[in-house]
Each structure stands twice: as C-alpha cells, then as structure tokens.
Amino acid sequence: MAQNKKTELAEDTKKMEEMNQIELIIGQVLRIGVIISAAVILIGILLLAVTGKTGYAPNVYPITVKSITAGILALKPFAIMMLGLFLLILTPVLRVAVSIYAFAKEKDHLYVWITTFVLVILLIGMGIGYLGK
Amino acid sequence: MINTIMLLIVVGLAAGIFGAIFGIGGGMIVTPILTLAMGLDIKYAIGASIISVIATSSGATVAYLKDDMLNLRVAMFLEIATTIGAIAGAILTGLLPSAVLYILFGLLLLFSAWNMYRKMRSGKETTDKIQPDSLSTKLKLNGSYYDNAVDKRIDYQVANVPGGFTMMLGAGLASGLLGIGSGAFKVIAMDTIMKMPLKPSSATSNLMMGVTAAASATVYFFNGSIQPEIAAPLAIGILVGAAIGSKIMKHLRARVLRMIFIPILFYIGLQMFLKGFGVTI
C-alpha cells in the first residue's frame, strides 16, 4: 500500500516535470512566432524610413492576399508591414493550437475538446473576415 | 512620416507597459490618443487598437516562457464565450455610426474607472474561503499561484462559472465592437464574479485578450480598417512595452496601481463620451 503511494507520487512528479517541459516548449514556439512577426514589421518600417515611399498611392492599402503577396515580391514597405501585422494576428491562434497539444499530452480530453472548439471558432472568424471582403 | 512613426512607437511603448500592468489591452490607451490627440477617424483607430491588443498579449508571452499566474483552463473555457462575442462585435462595428462608437467607448472607460474605484474602496485584495461551485470543480478551474509581493503560494477557488461565462460573452462583444481587449470586463468576470485573485485574473485576462482580439482582427484586417503606417509602429512599441510591463507587474501592489490609473481613465472616458456629442474639452 505504502509502496503504491510512493510510485504514484513518483509518477506525479514525473508528469509534472513533463508538463513543465511542454509548457516551456510552447513558450519557445510562441516567442519565435512573436519575434518573427516583429522582425517583419520592423523591416517594413525601416524600408519605409529609408526609401520614404509606401509603395502605394496615398490612402491606398494592400488588403487582399493577392495584393499583399504581389507587394511583398516587389518589396513594397506597406505590403511587408501588412504581412508582419497578419503574422502578429496569428500568434494567439498559434497559442491555442499548441495548447491543444499540451492538453492532449496531459491526457485531459475535456480540455482537448474545449480548446479545439475555440480554434474552430477562430478559423470561422477568419473565414468571415476573408469572405466578407 | 518618420516623426509620426517615432511618436507612435513611443505611444506604443507607454500603452504596452500600462496595458500589461493593468491587464487591459492597451486599446483603451491607444484609441483615445489616436482619436483625441491625433485626429484619426475612430474606425481606423479601432483597427490599430485591435492590433495593439494582440501585441500587448503576445509581448507578455515573450517576457515569460511560462507564466505561473496564468490559469490556462479558465482561459480556454471562457474563450469559447469571448471569441463568439468578438466575431459578432466586429461585424456590428461596420453597421454603427462613429458617434455611437465614441459614446460607447466613453461609457466603457467611465465604467472601468468607477469599477476600479469601487474595488479600491472595498479595500480587501485577496478573498480567501470561496465556495467553488460544482461546475468549476468539474471543469478543473481551481488553481494556485506564487505571489512575489507577499512571498508565498496562494491557492484559490473559482465560483459562479455561469455568471463569469455570460459576462465573457459581453466582454467579447465589446472587444470586437470597439477594438479593445476588454480586459477590464474580463478581470471583472474573473475577479469580481468568479472570485479569482487579482493577479491570476490579470495574467489570464492578458492571454485571453490576444485570442479574443485575433477572432475579430482578421475581420478588420481584410476590410481595410488596419492602416499599416499606424498599426505597425504601434505594434512594435507595444511588444517591447508589454514585455517590460509584465516584468514590473509582479513586484507592484495592486492598490498602488489602481490609484495611479483611475483618474486618468475617468478623464479620458469623459472626453470620449463628449466627443460622441461633438463637445471637446
């Protein structure tokens, strides 16, 4: 009986360490995501500062996937800034996605479902934004 | 153009620091500055603001790989409500006139100021001995955190989950509608309704704000409300500011924080409200 309790405790500690590890990895993934989006935004700002040109006529902004892609290929500052902003918008979505993995590892099925549901709502929001245009 | 960009980076820095400390999205600071001080149309300010909210939330993530004050289960469960609310709100914004948005925003700030003041008067910061309801036990929402200011681990229970969930639907709606993180509402839902302590409430609210804002941000992104020359420098400033702010937050006492912030919030709220009626003070 006492032996059982001991193994249980050891397993608990092992599980906690494993969870800690997963949370740290998630932290790293997000940190990299945020840094990449910040770097892209900064490149856009610097390009704007150096060239003094936005790449577009006054009050014109690239807002479709097509115009942003074309703008990035032509190294237009506004298009690069928009890409960075879009990547920044994706970082919380990434957070939700990796949390699903964390809950799955923890064998917390209830929260795998709850978190997946949140992700689906986010994707629906994106769909509405995209189709609304 | 360069001067404006530098100015926006500085505004972002300040908004990020305060946003992270108070668990608000930075949008409550950014929108009044963009509209009242810089004369930008509120619809574009809302677009820049929703980016600010995400930057505040993500900046704090960069500061801490792993936030012990965060309650991930509470966050994910309540995000079901906030994201649904946010999408509805973002769709609604396109349909409302600017004056109405100013008035709503002003009322929101006044309410937040009043709410912070009321809590300060009641004085007591930690409410121990909370009866958790059956739902919070079933959903494994109860948690614990380490409080640096008093130097000990504090266990807490979560009460009134349905009430908190309903409040979060409203918080999400306000977030999508006004481009704010509606952190104040989220903190109210967790700290006042669900009886969580302030620090985990703020940390959890901060994570939730980013996810909630992402739900409506794509709507704003694709409908042209997000202007890169405004949103991009703000985002950079805020990312750095929020990382600093969330480091400072752990060492501050909640009461001092509120005392600094309440008069500012009240004044700005009044200004926004009156602007909705065309009055400038």
TrEMBL record, chain A:
> What is the name listed in the Swiss-Prot or TrEMBL entry for this protein?
Integral membrane protein
Q: Which UniProt keywords apply?
A: Membrane, Transmembrane, Transmembrane helix
Q: Where are the transmembrane segments?
A: 29-50, 110-131
Database matches in InterPro entries:
DUF1634 (IPR012861)
The cross-references to Pfam families, in alphabetical order and at most eight, read: DUF1634 (PF07843)
Top-rank taxon of the source lineage equals Bacteria
From TrEMBL, chain B:
Q: Where are the transmembrane segments?
A: 7-30, 42-65, 72-93, 99-117, 230-249, 256-274
Organism superkingdom: Bacteria
Q: Would the keyword Chaperone be found if you checked this record's keyword annotation?
A: no
Q: What is its main location?
A: membrane
Annotated localization:
Cell membrane
A single Gene Ontology CC annotation of this entry is: plasma membrane
What is the membrane topology noted in the UniProt record heading this document?
Multi-pass membrane protein
Alphabetic keyword roster: Cell membrane, Membrane, Transmembrane, Transmembrane helix, Transport
Q: Does the keyword Cell membrane apply?
A: yes
Its family?
Belongs to the 4-toluene sulfonate uptake permease (TSUP) (TC 2.A.102) family.
> Which protein, by its recorded name, is this?
Probable membrane transporter protein
